[in-house]
Every structure is written in structure tokens, then in C-alpha cells.
Design goal:
By secondary structure, the protein is mainly alpha-helical. Helix content is 71%, strand content 0%. It is built from 6 helices and no strands. Helix 1 packs antiparallel against helix 2 (56-72), helix 1 crosses helix 5 and helix 3 (76-95) packs antiparallel against helix 5 (108-123). The protein is globular. The chain starts with 5 loop residues before the first helix and ends with a helix.
Length: 152
């Protein structure tokens, strides 16, 4: 008896991608909400980031908006690239000046979010994404239109 996990893995891959996308986006949006609105413990343990302050307020806007977009699976790849880039910027501009390794400079969340969003951008949204639903609706209409065109 030869058991291969490949068919099972192909079946669950879109669902696993969707769960990964949803959890990553939700956690990222929570960071943005905490910084912008002072909820969930607030920014850096309390309060909010001053409006329009560079880069904190802008990062929080990217965290909230990007996290929501990635969670929903709407403009997923673009939003994930922007979120990944913002975390790379955060790591190199804020954390790396304190020490070389993320464990020493407190940059583990920035590094993990950066790579997680890069993975989402490369692999796509997976199942249950608004992008996928919109794409299916568009291709279905296009397929219907081409099916009605008579061929000579």
C-alpha cells in the first residue's frame, strides 16, 4: 500500500493559505487599531500615536488598512507587498540600529510580519477571498459571452 499525502495537501492548501492570510491580516490590523484608537492596550502600552506623526501614525494606518484588506482578501497581493515593505522599513529604521539580530533588538514582530506578508503576496490569497470571488464572477461572465459566439 502506497500512501501519498500530495492529493490531500493539494486539497487543503487553499484553505490553509486563507487561514494564514486571515490570521496574519487580523493581527496586523489589531496593531494599527491599537496605535490609532488606543484600544487593545494602545500604542506602546497606552495611548495613541499623534496624528500625522512620521512614521508612527502612517505605519499605523498601513497596519490597519493593509491588515483589513489582507484579511478580507481584497487587493491581497498589493496590500501584502505594502505591508511587507512597511515592516522591512520598520525593522531597518527602528530596530536594527540597536543590535544586529531581531532577538536582541526587539524586531521579531517586524521581521515575522515582513516575511509573512511577502509569503501572502507570492502565494496569493487562497480560498474565501474577495479577490477570488470577484475573479470568478468576471471569468464566468467572460466564459458565458464567448460560449454564445458561434464559430465558423
Amino acid at each position: 500500500m502506497n500512501f501519498s499525502p500530495a492529493p490531500t495537501l493539494r486539497t487543503v492548501r487553499p484553505v490553509v493559505q486563507a487561514v494564514f492570510r486571515l490570521v496574519t491580516g487580523f493581527l496586523f490590523a489589531c496593531h494599527g487599531a491599537a496605535s490609532l484608537f488606543g484600544v487593545l492596550g494602545g500604542a506602546h502600552g497606552g495611548g495613541t500615536v499623534p496624528t500625522l506623526q512620521w512614521p508612527g501614525w502612517w505605519a499605523a494606518v498601513i497596519e490597519l488598512a493593509g491588515g483589513v484588506l489582507v484579511s478580507l482578501g481584497l487587493f491581497t497581493r498589493v496590500a501584502a507587498v505594502i505591508c511587507s515593505g512597511s515592516m522591512a522599513y520598520a525593522y531597518f529604521s527602528v530596530h536594527q540600529q540597536h543590535a544586529l539580530f531581531p532577538i536582541d533588538n526587539g524586531g521579531e514582530p517586524a521581521v515575522l510580519f515582513c516575511w509573512a506578508f511577502l509569503l501572502v503576496a507570492c502565494l496569493g490569497p487562497g480560498a474565501c477571498a474577495v479577490d477570488t470571488l470577484l475573479k470568478r464572477g468576471t471569468t464566468t461572465r467572460a466564459d458565458d459571452a464567448t460560449a454564445r459566439v458561434p464559430t465558423s
